[in-house]
Amino acid sequence: MKSQYFAGIDIGSTMTKIAIMNQALLASVVGPTGPEHRKLANEVMEEALAKANLPFEAITYVVATGYGRINVPFADKQITEISCHARGVGYLLPEVRTVIDIGGQDCKGIKLNDNGQAVDFVMNDKCAAGTGRFLEVTAEELGVNLEDMGRLSLEAKNKVEISSTCTVFAAQEVVAKLSAGAPLPDIIAGLHEAIATRIYGMVRRLKIEREVALTGGGAKNIGLVKALEAKLGFPALVPPEPLLTGAIGAALMGRDIVKQAGESGTTLPRSERRLQEVSLFTQ
Amino acid sequence: MAEKGAGRGLATANKYYQDYGGRARELKKQGQRIMGYLCALAPVEIISAAGFVPFRIKGNVNEPITKADSEMETIVCPLVRSCFDMSLKGKYEFLDGIVIPHACDSIARSYSTISYSLGLPYSHFINIPHTTKDISREFFKAELGTFKESLARFAGKEISDDSLFQAIQLNNEVKAKVRELYQFRKSDPPLISGTEVTKVLVAAMGIPAVEASQLLDDVIDEVKKRASPPVKKLPRIMVVGAEVDDIAFIKLIEDSGANVVVDSMCVGTRDYFFDVDTGQDPLGSIADYYLRKLNCPRTYREWTGEIYEEDLEARFGDIGSFVKDFKVDGVILYILKYCDPFGFEVPARMQYIKSLDTPVLYIEDEYSMSTIARLRTRVQAFLEILAR
Amino acid sequence: MEEQKWPEKYPVEGKRGRKYGTVAAMKIGPMVKAAIGSSVEAQQEGKDIAYTFIECNYDEIIRAMDIVPVWTENYAGICGAKRDAQRFLEKAESLNFSRSLCTYALCGLGFDEWREELNDMPPDAPWGGQARPRVMLSSGQILCDPRNKWYQAAQQFQPDVPIYNLTGFYPIYERDADFHETEGYYAKYMMEDLRGLVRFLEEHFHKKMDWDRLWETLRLADETTDLHVECRELRKAVPTPMDTGDAMNCMVPQAFMMGTQEGYNFYKDLRDELKYKVEHKLGVIEDERYRLVWAGGLPSWFALSDFNYFWSKGAVFPVESTYNEQVYSVRELDLPKTDDPLEYIAWRSIRRWTYWYDKARKRPGSEPDVERTINYIEKYNIDGIVVHEAFSCRSWHVGLIWMLNQIAKIYKPIPVLILGKVEKEEKTYREVPSLILESDIIDISSYNEADTRARIDAFVDTLEAVKSR
Question: How many residue pairs from chains A and B have C-beta atoms closer than 8 A?
């Protein structure tokens, strides 16, 4: 049987991710989203196709997910990131029953059943505290590179308590504490603690079950991973490329859909397959 | 003149929904007096009996709240704030007065603010007990009597028992017709969509009962004659919440690939699924209805059974009946931020709904539809889970 | 300026750098701690324990029946003051309670669920923890939904604890109606509801009410209130001997110890202290420049030190509305004669809650809260109004903006009569600026100290500008 290829595109508020798969992951691209989702979706897709050495026509099915999923005209289906993250993590780490996804501007908790399917979820996409944004804003206030925040937090001797949950207030608070002489790593550890508290508080509503996986940009922050593990009371698993679980899951869902259609003999509705640039204001 | 005739029901409902208050404005020009009210707990029977057209004040999910903020704290329920905002912006300029029942803190504590700011010729607050004891009913009946006297003074004429009796009958008629309309939602797929029902019910709450009755007749007639259902066979959803006075959220669910087939909300079954008794004591019957029959969490229901699950059944059993009768696949618990009566009940409600082996999605929202993208993701994810 | 002479028995500095204006206030912490400790002991000994709320109208009933009250709002306030409420709020949130709900209730629910889970007090529970009750007494009351729903929510994880829910209404103020026409059936309702409460307590605690003892307890409570009223009157003095910061502590016996000898003794000592200070012109601060009224809102229990900040700017609060709602002497209330203590309680409650109604009707545009604030402005020589908006409490914080707007509308600048140089009476006018503080009762994550201090600074500047005109 001719090999089938599936593409998953995850347009988050901060980062856009693509995964092209057949039996395994063939190619992936991660890039910043920016404001023009539609234009970007095409560009990132082309980049991924080039990496996989495939023409667009070779892709059997495209699934779009994430915040910008409605802005992908060449996608055959849109599925929420909850289902896609569940599917992706279920594939990469089958023993996981709770997923905590920490994105640039939102965070989610997803409960999985034994088949790696989402059965319940919680989301926070309204408040920056508990998301990457919180660290971005405070890092800027402190004059520290975002990439260094995690590492620095681990150097703390005495974690400083940050009581504000509002990002703006917290930023003011850290400046005050810095001026009062608190060491930088101690403050940064306090910030990680604050985020971990918000995230943990949200996910607890799901009745956390092991194993727990962390995904999204936040999972690449070693300080945040440690802070969350401290809250959980046990180690968490982080997949090798934590930003890609949504896109991988989306591609796999595409594969599932095609397989099911084949078995039941139904025809699938497909999108108009055009990978051309669409301006932001087209109908 | 109110539109009548078969085939015009849904179109009329749509017209009254889109131009909410338009009919009341017309009636005012014709010399009628319009009495505004908030919430399903306002005794519209007494208002009608006094010769006023009861008009339920609603908010607008698409209009940002601006004027209200200079007078009313932002920790008030967003729906109440929106109602107040719309009033301040002159959308309900035809009102002759306003009646505020003791529904919840947001409403009760805003009474002064609302009544002074709107500067209407008449305003009245009706205290409603929190418990359903006999002494509470007695108190409430006396309080309704006070309201009746106050309204009669403003109306310039007595309110006879007979006029109360008639108003009760007329409103019961409307309730019965709504229940009849809901029967068309039992089929799979339903013969009327959730969006359409909400439009009809919202339209009905802004016109006199006699016109609402006619409107419902027309709608039922039209729906009965439908050659085919207006929607496809899709997951059957029940919405549980406080006041939903706009189609936005219902439509979002339906656009995401589901049918809203039943509810426990107002405007919905909460207002229409029980009748006021027609006995010798109209004021007592009205007291019984609003205190004991209308099922809203602001009223504390005494625990009477043995085990906790019996308490849940007593409080939420209507949800269980609806889930069964309307073959509901999933329940969405849609609660506004800053809502105390429902907010405190969320864990208990979720426990109850789960005991029915029915998946439940809990959403806390802010009333305004600026959150629509977030809502869409949650609803869609829930439907994806249901699909398995 | 002459140094204030502080006698030995009324020293000036309190503990931990926080200056207590009165010695009495310093006793409150230990008193509350002892009460909480003894309720925990009582639980261990299997004694009769009830959860209850302040200003419930049945303090004396509980005391007369030797039932140990656990004041859940107070315990939440303690957690807040000790800045240890967050973990309980988070616990409640994990159960799917919205963070926008009353944070007293969230704290209590989080604590109780945790206690049930562990079958023991949560680790390092403040002051030993909150004792598990045998019954829970709700008082819906006209202005508080949480008190109607909180304990019901708690039954989800302690379903063996029954509830009695008392409504406790008073007539709402209407501009065009005389509440005297309705108060009769309000009183009857409350009286009957209290009767139901007594029956409930008798049934669940297997003991009978001693009605004579109830009368005694009521008398003691009334006398205690009289002392409290005296204290409030004494604060009219310039300089004021006691500030709202203190009052937030000194309200404890009125709120939680009515009908006890301890409560009575407390206000007697406080009265004596204030009398002494007034006689010797000992004020809360030496250089009293601005007198403010705290006209609404519960305080931020974790930020009572903000009052110190006001003091450092020369501002004091001789009077407040919060927790003063029931502080009226029965001699002023024109209570009907009755043999029935429950009828007595019902009328006393209604009269207290409608205290300002008749006066408000005499002034166009006034309402009871507006009228009370105006009264305080005039009697206490007030320069400015402060209110606090706590985000989680609709009950006490909705309507404050309206009240401030209304005062500004209907209360013309105070004419102040001064004897001029030629022995003529001159009038001068003083505006009354207002300040809104925003935070919460116990959720510290809502509080921004820098912002709060900045607002206070700006307000003080305004007060100064008005004063120097």
Answer: 31
